[in-house]
């Protein structure tokens, strides 16, 4: 492998992950295990269950990636672990594991902001992607527009004032009895429905500040579903998806107008798997003469390769952290 060789750990939500990434963008090994089965009965992530699962799984995953890559712990240049934001129990498991590995190997710790991992992940996938770019991060936990000007230079242009977009998909799917996580099931159902069948709100669209809001949309889905004469599930799913897409496009357009220096419009996060949303964002990017860059799904959803890569970028700039670096459940970029 080329240098620096970084071991990355991720455990801030419901995915436990470890990965080894080098300075030439090679992912030498990576493992991710989700917890959908554990949380499905509750329709959402239960923090205590997540923390226990992380603590059982993380160390075996680290051993597995080192073995698969044929790398000894002493050969890594640094250990990068997510230090926040996220569910505190899981963050602590990953950060403490990272500290122990750093101490044992005598290598530095890099305490990575999970959002920075997402923000830089497109550069792991695409070596031609240069700063600055506008990133739309849309997942079950985040809905943000970040102007990425360089490593450590992020300008948050928008965030959600209530639910994340993926959360709105999951909650709407739950209302319609589609299971958890509901995004993929809702998209599949929407394919057979009429997106104009049910009139739904597009919260905040047209407003000057490019923030997001999805709680009102979800409530409207609930009201429509609980009517005496409810719409067909496929029509409600299609109408919801169209409304959510309109919100993402309108808010992103507002942000793109503000950053004419952007060289690309990048989308990351689990919701970026949605075909209708991707198509709409691609058309939006074209309005501004920009390419839409979407990293492969394995790098878009929570993973440790993006944490290791953020570690590579930080290590090169000499940005390492002391072993008493705090776990930060809330940590804006
Ligand atoms: O990035 P991700 O794995 O991280 C977390 O937030 O944990 O994103 C998961 C989210 C879930 O809310 C899921 O419902 C949503 O992404 N999602 C989708 C689709 N696939 C996943 N939402 C809409 N359409 C999809 N095809
Ligand atoms: Zn994430």
Could you explain how this protein is built, in words?
The chain is globular. A five-stranded mixed β-sheet has the order 3-2-1-4-5, with helices on both faces. It has a five-stranded mixed β-sheet with strand order 8-7-6-9-10, with helices on both faces. The two termini are 30 Å apart. With 333 residues, it is of the alpha/beta class. It folds into two domains: 6-121 and 299-316, ATPase, nucleotide binding domain (Nucleotidyltransferase, domain 5); 130-294, ATPase, nucleotide binding domain (Nucleotidyltransferase, domain 5). α3 links the parallel β4 and β5. It is built from eleven helices and ten strands. 43% of the residues lie in helices and 17% in strands. 5'-O-[(R)-(carboxyoxy)(hydroxy)phosphoryl]adenosine binds at residues 13-14, 139-141, 166, 169-170, 181-184, 187, 269-271, 273-274, 301-302. Belongs to the KAE1 / TsaD family. One of its GO terms (biological process) is tRNA threonylcarbamoyladenosine modification. It holds the Pfam family TsaD.
């Amino acid at each position: 492998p080329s240098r620096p060789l970084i071991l990355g750990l991720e455990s801030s939500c419901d995915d436990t992950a470890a990965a080894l990434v080098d300075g030439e963008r090679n992912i030498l090994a990576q493992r991710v295990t989700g917890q959908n089965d554990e949380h499905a009965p509750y329709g959402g992530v239960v923090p205590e269950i997540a923390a226990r699962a992380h603590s059982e799984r993380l160390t075996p995953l680290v051993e597995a990636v080192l073995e698969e890559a044929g790398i000894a712990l002493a050969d890594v240049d640094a250990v990068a672990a997510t230090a926040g934001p996220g569910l505190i129990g899981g963050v602590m498991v990953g950060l403490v594991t990272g500290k122990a590995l750093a101490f044992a190997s005598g290598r530095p710790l890099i305490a990575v902001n999970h959002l920075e991992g997402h923000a830089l992940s497109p550069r792991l996938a695409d070596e031609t992607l240069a700063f600055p770019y506008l990133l739309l991060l849309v997942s079950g936990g985040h809905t943000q527009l970040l102007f990425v000007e360089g490593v450590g230079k992020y300008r948050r242009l928008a965030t959600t004032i209530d639910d994340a977009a993926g959360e709105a998909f999951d909650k709407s799917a739950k209302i319609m009895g589609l299971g958890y996580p509901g995004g993929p099931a809702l998209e599949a159902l929407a394919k057979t429905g009429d997106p104009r069948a049910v009139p739904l709100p597009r919260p905040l669209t047209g407003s000057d500040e490019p923030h997001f809001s999805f709680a009102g949309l979800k409530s409207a889905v609930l009201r429509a579903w609980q009517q005496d004469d409810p719409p067909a599930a496929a029509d409600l799913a299609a109408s919801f998806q169209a409304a959510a897409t309109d919100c993402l496009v309108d808010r992103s357009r507002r942000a793109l107008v503000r950053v004419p220096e952007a060289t690309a419009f990048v989308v990351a996060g689990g919701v970026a798997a949605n075909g209708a949303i991707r198509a709409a964002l691609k058309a939006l990017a074209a309005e501004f003469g920009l390419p839409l860059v979407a990293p492969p799904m394995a790098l878009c959803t929570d993973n440790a390769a993006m944490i290791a890569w953020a570690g590579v970028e930080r290590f090169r700039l000499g940005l390492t952290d002391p072993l008493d670096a705090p776990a930060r459940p809330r940590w804006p970029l």
